[in-house]
Amino acid sequence: MLKIEELLHVAKESALIAGKILLEGYGTSFKIMNKEGKNNLVTEYDFKAEKAIIENIKKYYPDHIFLAEESGKTGTNTETVRWIIDPLDGTVNFAHSMPIFSVSIAAEYQGEILCGVIYQPVLNELFYASKGNGAFMNDIKISVSENPDFESAFLVTGFPYNVNTNPHNCIDHFVSIIQRGIPIRRLGSAAVDMAYVACGRFDGFWEINLNPWDVAAGIIIVEEAGGKVTQYDLEKYKIFDDSILVTNGLIHNIISVDLMNSSCKRCNDD
Ligand code: IPD
Ligand code: CA
Ligand code: CA
Predict the structure, then answer these.
(1) Atom of ligand 1 nearest to the CA of 213
(2) d(CA 153, CA 251)
(3) C-alpha 29 to ligand 2 mean position (Å)
């Protein structure tokens, strides 16, 4: 029998352990390597944090399986919980001593995300949610913004690492919305972007080509905070889909229309 509150406890504990490791490295000089794509960095702290998270979860659940950014898939038992982990979301920020980065951990069972945690160590902000129990930041209940007006919305987006070669690069979307005079930020951590929609700091977020570990925790946190998560075309979002649109629910349809009308709508077509 799966106890969701117990899973959430382990997720939170693991995120705090990883956050401590990241803070030890933050601002020091450490090894930085390149991954596929231009300026797609990975540091020794991505690996250290991931190892610590997996070790901690395994202490409680030796038979659970993992999908983690740096170590990929581990374990074969599909009848059990799968932990989806980004040990350091915002590596490029971290590598440049920019304080916006996070740890993202979700527990999924048979395709359903049961709980998720996003931890921003520099601000000591722990966002979390479990199915049916609401969303929280440092134990205070959070909810999405109540702004129904697209023209006064505060938005955030991101760009894939292959933006220089990817024809579906999101720039058209960015231009189309920014030209209306609507403020858009680019923080560099998709998990933070989603956590900030969940707590009402942003009204909406969109991006293409994200990976399951970037979004799994964010999805349940946003949904439990009363927000909406779909693909650009409003189809249900599953963690391997190409486009993601995350909002307070009230400006969802209007942003979807804008995204679909700017040329990057192709990214949903192929
Ligand atoms: C990246 C961040 C960034 C997003 C990229 C992601 P990483 O994750 O979430 O905000 O724009 O697409 O890959 O590489 O820092 O874990
Ligand atoms: Ca990431
Ligand atoms: Ca990462």
Answers:
(1) 16
(2) 8
(3) 21
Between the CA of 258 and the centroid of ligand 3 the distance, in Å, is 29
What is the spatial distance between Cα 172 and Cα 168, in angstroms, rounded to a whole number? Answer: 9
Question: Domain map of the chain by residue range?
Answer: 4-142, 150-269
For residue 93, the ligand 1 atom closest to its alpha carbon is: 15
- Classify 226 in phi/psi space as left (phi over 0), alpha (psi -120 to 50) or beta: left
Number of the ligand 1 atom closest to the C-alpha atom of 42: 14
Assigned fold of 150-269: D-Maltodextrin-Binding Protein; domain 2 (3.40.190)
Distances (CA, A) of 219 to 113, 166, 183: 8, 25, 23
Model confidence pLDDT, tens digit, residues 47-95: 999 999 999 999 999 999 999 999 999 998 989 999 999 999 999 999 9
Cβ of 210 closer than 6 Å to ligand 1, yes or no, is yes
Q: Which CATH architecture has domain 4-142?
A: 2-Layer Sandwich (3.30)
**pLDDT tens sequence across 22-49:** 999 999 999 999 988 778 889 999 999 9
CA distance 242 to 207: 9
Say which residue the tokens 């395994």 belong to.
Answer: 58
